[in-house]
Fold these 3 entries.
Entry 1:
Amino acid sequence: MTDTIIVLDYGSQYAQLIARRVRELQVYCELFHWNTPPEEILALNPKGYILSGGPASVYEEGAPTLPAYVLDSGLPVLGICYGMQLLTHDLGGKVAPGGEREYGHAKVNVNVDNPLMPQGDYEVWMSHGDRVEGLPPGFELLGSSANSPWAVMGNAERRIYGIQFHPEVHHTPQGMTILENFVDAICGAERDWTPKHIIEKSVADIRAQVGDARVLAAVSGGVDSSVAAALVHRAIGGQLCALFVDNGLLRQGELESVQVALNEHMDGSLNVLDASQDFLSALSGVTEPEAKRRAIGETFIRKFESFARQQENIDFLMQGTIYPDVIESRAPERSAAQVIKSHHNVGGLPKDMHFALVEPLRYLFKDEVRRIGAALGLPDELIWRQPFPGPGLAVRCLGEVTAERLATLRAADAIFTSELRAAELLEQPGGSDTGIAQAFVALLPVKSVGVMGDQRTYQETAVLRAVSSQDFMTADWVRLPYELLARVSSRIVNEVKGVNRVVYDLTSKPPATIEWE
Ligand SMILES: Nc1ncnc2c1ncn2[C@@H]1O[C@H](COP(=O)(O)OP(=O)(O)OP(=O)(O)O)[C@@H](O)[C@H]1O
Ligand SMILES: O=c1[nH]c(=O)c2[nH+]cn([C@@H]3O[C@H](COP(=O)(O)O)[C@@H](O)[C@H]3O)c2[nH]1
Ligand SMILES: NC(=O)CC[C@H](N)C(=O)O
Ligand SMILES: [Mg+2]
C-alpha cells in the first residue's frame, strides 16, 4: 500500500497546493474536508497529517475543530496557520486576535535544534490576523517573527509541529525543504509516487474495476482525456470505445484537427457524434454561468448514454477528470473551500446517470498528468496542448449562446490565435513562468457606439485574454507587445462582423479567474 500523507482542509485557498507540493516530493498525498468521516481517511492508512490554514478563528463559536482520530493516531502532525492555531487551542495553549493582520513577507528566526527547520533565518509568507500567544504544555518555542513571537512550535516526543506561515507558496523559498523534512524525516513516508508507479497502480485498478465489460471513453483531444484513454487502453485494450462529441462549442478548425490527432494514436477507432443542435437547444435562453455548465454537463451525459445504448455491454464511462476539477467543483468528499465553478464533468453531472465512472486521473494534478503522458509515450504537441474547457466557447460567449454569436466569437478567436502563433508566442513546450499558458477571446454582450466608414455602429465587445500559469490555479496576464495587440484589434474590428471594440484583460487570478464564466 502506498504511504499517504493526509491534508485536512480548513478552507484555505492554498490547501490544494499543500497536497501538490507533497506529491512533488514523490509522496502520495490526498486532501479531505476536515469533517470527513474518519473511516474514509483511516482506510488510506496515513503516515502523517497536515492541517491547512483557513478563514475562521479557533476561539469563535462554530469554528472548525480537530477530529479526535488525528491526535489519537499518535502520528506526526503539521499545523499550518489555522492548523497551528487549532493545535494550540485544542492542546491547552492560547490563541488571540493579533494587534494587526500580518499579510505578506516576514522573516522567521529559528534558534532551537529541531528536525523540521534547522536553525537560521527564513524568508516566509504570512497571512493571518490571529496568533498564538501561549504554547500548550509539552511544546517548545522554536522560532519567532517580528509580529508572531510564537511562529514555530513543536513537541518532539509527540512529533507535532505548528508553523504560522505558509510553506506551500513560492514566496516561502525554503518551504519545500520544510515540507520535505516533515514528510521524510518526521513521518518517514516512502517516496515512491513516480510516473511508473502511478501507471502500474492505475492499470491494475482499471482492470479490477472493469473486468471484461467495455468502457466508453469520452475524449476531447485535450491532454487529460488523451492520457486517461491511453491508460485505459493499456489496461483493457480493445474493450475501449472512444467517442468525441461535436458540441458545436468548438473553436475554428478544432473538429478536424482533433479527429486527425486522435485517430493517429487510437488506431483509427475514434467515433464522432455531431450533437451541436442538442447543445444549442439546451443552452437556448440560458445566461447564468452555472446554469450553462449544468446544461452542458447533462447534455454530454445524455449523448454518451444514447451512444452506449446502440453498443453492447458498455457500463462504464471514462472521463479525463483531474483533481482540480474535483476540488473546484467541490465534490463533497474533498474540499472545504467555496465552489468557484462547477466543472461540467464533475459538478455538472446529472444525478440519474446510467454509467459507472472510470476516472484514472481523478486524484492527479495537471503536471502529474503530463508526466504520465510522457511516460506513456504520447507526443509532445498533445502533452503541451493548451487546456480547452469542456463547456467550450459557451463559457466564453457571455450572455446567451446562439449560433450567430458563436460564429462571431470563433472568427475573433481564430485571428488572435493565428497572430500569436505567427509571432511564435503560442506553443511553448515545457511551460514557463511568463509565456502564454492559455490565450483566447471572449465575447461580451455589451454594445457600444463606434464609427466605421462614416457610419454609426452599435455592436458587441471582444476581450482578448492571455495568461501565464504553471498549474492554472493562479495565473497572471501576459505583457503582450503593443504592436501585436494593435494588429489583432484592427483585424478583429475590420474582419469580424458584429464586433466594433476590442479590449485586453489585465486581471490576474486571483482575483479574477482565467475563463470569464
Ligand atoms: N467534446 C468532447 N467529447 C467527448 N468528451 C469530452 C469532450 N469535451 C470534454 N470531454 C470530457 O470531459 C472531460 C473534461 O474536459 P477537460 O477539458 O477538463 O479535459 P481535457 O479536454 O481532457 O483536457 P484539457 O484540460 O487539456 O482540455 C474530458 O477529459 C473528456 O472526458
Ligand atoms: O474541462 C474543463 N471544464 C470546465 O468546466 C472548466 N472551467 C474552466 N476550465 C479550465 O480550467 C482552468 C482554470 O480556469 P478558471 O481560472 O477559469 O477557473 C483553465 O485552463 C480553464 O480553461 C475548465 N475545464
Ligand atoms: N490563513 C489562515 O489560516 C488564517 C488563520 C486565522 N483565521 C487568522 O486569521 O489568523
Ligand atoms: Mg478540454
Entry 2:
Amino acid sequence: MVVCQGLCKRYGAFDALRACDLTVTAGEVFGLLGPNGAGKTTLIRLMLGYIHPTAGTCRVAGIDVVDDSVAVRRNVSYLPGDARLPRHMRGKGVLEFFAAMHPDGDLQRSLDVAQRLDLNLRTHVAFMSTGMRQKLALAVVLGPRTPLLVLDEPTANLDPTVRAEVLQMVREARADGRTVMLSSHVLSEIEETCGEVAFLRRGVLAHRLTMSELFQQHRITGDLDRPVADRLVDPNSDAIPMQFADRLVCSLADDAAGVSGASGSNSSTTVRLDTSGDLASFLGWLDDLGIRRMRVEPLGLRAVYDAVHFGQTIPVGVSTAPQGAMHAAGTSRPSEETVS
Ligand SMILES: Nc1ncnc2c1ncn2[C@@H]1O[C@H](COP(=O)(O)OP(=O)(O)OP(=O)(O)O)[C@@H](O)[C@H]1O
C-alpha cells in the first residue's frame, strides 16, 4: 500500500526526514512511533503529497505522490494531528459537507461513528470541547471507506471509554481489508492494535518490528554472583554462548530494587537480560549460571521504545530498519543493533 524509497525532507540545513525506506503491506495496521519532532507528521504529509520530498520517492496504492497527489488522496482518509473544522457549522453540517466532498463520502457511516462516540451533532463546532471536536474529526474521517486510513494521534484528548471505541473501529477497518497507519504516543494503544511498528528518531527510521516478534521478547531480571555478572556484561568476554549471542543483551540493572536488595553489593548484583526468540532454550543456561530470584516479563513496546530513544542496544531477532537508515544511525557489534 505504501512504498517509500530514500525519502528525504530538508528545511534549509535541517533534515526533518532522512533517507526513509518504508513499506506498509496492504491490510495491516501499521504504527508510527517517535518522540516529538521525530518526523512522523512529515512522513505522513510527504506520503499524501501535501509537501514535496527533497529527495526519494513514495508511492501510495501504486500512485506516485508527487506526480498525482490528488489521485493518492482519493485512496486515503486522513486525520491530521491538528484537525481544524469550520467553527460556524453544527456537527451534522460538518459531516454533510465532508461526505459530499470526498468521492467515497458516506454520510450514514459518519453519522453512525458520531453516535458510537456519543457526540451531540447539534452543537456548533465553536462551542464544542476539544474532545468533541476530535470525535467530530474522527466521524468525518471514518466515513469514507478508502483503502488507506491515516490517523495522526487519533485518540488525543479522548476519555478512556471513547479511546477504546476508536481502537475498536481501527480493528474493524482492518477486518474490512483496509490498511491503517496510526501515529500515537500511547504505546499500549499501538501494542493493542498494530501488527507492525516503525520508530522514527531525529528524522531517521531507526527501528522496525512486528508485534509477533515483540511478543517473543522478554526481560529477565535476577541476581547473580558479581564475577559472573561482570563477565556477562563485558562485551569482550565470551561468557554468552554463540547460539544466544545475537538474541541476548545483558546489562546491570540500576532500578531493580523490587527484585533484590542486594543490587550492587560486592558479592552479588542484579542483572537484566533482554532476550528475543524462544525463551525455553535460555532457561537451562540460566540455571547453570546460578541466577537467583529471577523475574521474567514480556519486554513490551515501552522497553524497545526507550532503547531506540536513548540509543541503547536492542536484541536482534526482530525486523531491522533498512541498511541505509541503520548506517545513518550508527551500528556497533555485528550481532547487535545500536541506535546512537
Ligand atoms: N515547515 C517547516 N519548516 C521547518 N521545520 C519544520 C517544518 N515542518 C516541520 N519541521 C520540523 O521537522 C521536525 C519534524 O516535525 P514533525 O511534525 O514531522 O514531528 P512529529 O514526529 O510529527 O512530532 P510530534 O509528535 O510532536 O507531532 C521538527 O523538528 C519540526 O520543527
Entry 3:
Amino acid sequence: MIDFHNVTVSFFGDKKALNNISFKIKRGEFVYITGKSGAGKSTLLRLIYADLKPTSGVVLIAKKNLNYITESSIPYLRRNIGVIFQDFKLLEDYTVYENILIALEIFYLEKKDMENKIIPLLHKLDIYSKRNTLVKKLSGGEKQRVAIARALINEPIIVLADEPTGNLDPERAENTIKLLQDIARNGSTVIVATHDKHLIEKFPARTITLENGKIISDIEII
Ligand SMILES: Nc1ncnc2c1ncn2[C@@H]1O[C@H](COP(=O)(O)OP(=O)(O)OP(=O)(O)O)[C@@H](O)[C@H]1O
C-alpha cells in the first residue's frame, strides 16, 4: 500500500529532514512513527499526503509513484486519505457538525442519510453534545476529536495522524488509539506519528523509530 524507496528530503543545504529511508506498509496495518521532535515524523506523513515531494527516492502509494503525480490528480489521492493534523486545520467559524458535513464527499446523499453517517461518529468521539458549537469555542482536546471525526467520515483507505493524542487527557488518548486500531482492523492503513512511549507500550504495534531523519529501528509486534 505504502512503499518508500531510499527517500531523502532536504529543505536547505546539507540538512536532511529524511535521509535515505526505505520501508513498506501493508493494507490494514497499524504503524507508529516515533522519534524525538525534529526527527522527521511530520515530513514522512507529508510525503504520503503528496504535500511534499522527495528530493530523491521514490514514494509509492497503491503502486502510484508520487514523483509523477500532477497537481490536478492530488485531490483524487487525498480523497482516499484521512489526515489528522497537529494543528487540526478546522474551519473555526463553523460548527462541529458543519466541519464534518463539509468534509463529507457524498453531497448527493439525502440530509437524513448524511446525518446517519455523521451522528454515530460524533457519539463515538464524544462530541455529539457540541455538534452545534462553533469550533473556535472548543477546547484543544475537543478540536482534536472533531479533527479525528473529519478524517474518518469518508472511510478513507489510509489514515494519517500527527500526534493525534497530544491535547487529550490520558483516558481520551487511549480511546483515540483504540479507535484508530479498530479502523485498521476494518481494513484501513493507519499511521500514527507520536512521541508518546507510554501509549505505544500500552497499545503495542509495529513501530518505526526515526532519529535525525534515519530509521533506527522498525519493530513488528505479532
Ligand atoms: N518546511 C520546512 N522548511 C525547513 N525545514 C523544515 C521544514 N519542515 C521541517 N523542517 C526540518 O526538518 C526536520 C524534521 O522536521 P519534522 O517536522 O518532520 O519533525 P517531527 O519529527 O515531525 O517533529 P515534531 O515532533 O516536533 O513535530 C527538522 O529539523 C525541521 O526543522
